[in-house]
Amino acid sequence: MTESNAGATRFATPMLIRFAHCDPAGIVYFPQYLTLFNGVVEDWFNQALQISYSRLITVDRVGLPIVRLECDFQAVSPLGDTVELGLSVVKLGTRSITLRIDCLGPDGQLRVSCEKVLVFMNLATHQSIPAPPHVRLAIERFMRGSKD
Q: Which Pfam families match (predicted)?
């Protein structure tokens, strides 16, 4: 975890841009960023929050569908680059969480930024639910930059 420019705690992970991410021009095909950004959310749960994302989905039956998404594309990411994907929490609501995700090139240049709202959902009923208490606590700790 690192501090972002806005002072918010930021989770970051490196990602190699692979052939499967790219279009015929050899740059990331823009919808692939959504797959990469979902991956950074999973990594954030597993690594920073210490909550198994797969258990949350398959055992606890809690999903996190996107209900709002806004992306800004600044620069291309070519095949073979190792980029840094970063995540910070903008807002933790009762039933939703707003995340800012970014993709930085090897030189630190912002390539893509995204703000997305995820809703906690009961996968049996497909209804929104309050954030599970253990998840809320872990996110609050992350937002404070705590490691306790």
A: 4HBT_2 (PF13279)
* Domain-embedded: residue 53: yes
Instruction: Flag whether the pTM goes above 0.70.
Output: yes
User: Token pair of 87, please?
Assistant: 């995540």
**SS3 category, 144:** helix
Instruction: Please answer whether residues 15 and 33 qualify as being in contact, where contact means their C-beta atoms are separated by less than 8 angstroms.
Output: no
Q: Provide the CA 95 distance to its chain's centre, in angstroms.
A: 17
Domain containing 90 equals 18-144
Residue 56: C-alpha distances to residues 42, 74, 135 (Å): 10, 33, 9
- Residue 134: give its domain's CATH number: 3.10.129.10
Q: 3-state DSSP call for residue 23? A: coil
Tokens of 88: 């910070």
Q: pLDDT, tens digit, for every residue of 23-77?
A: 999 999 999 999 999 999 999 999 999 999 999 999 999 999 999 999 999 999 9
Q: What per-residue string of b and e applies to 62-81 under the rule 16 or more CB within 10 Å gives b? A: bebeeeeeeeeeeebbebeb
The DSSP element (H or E) to which 96 belongs, if any, is strand 96-104
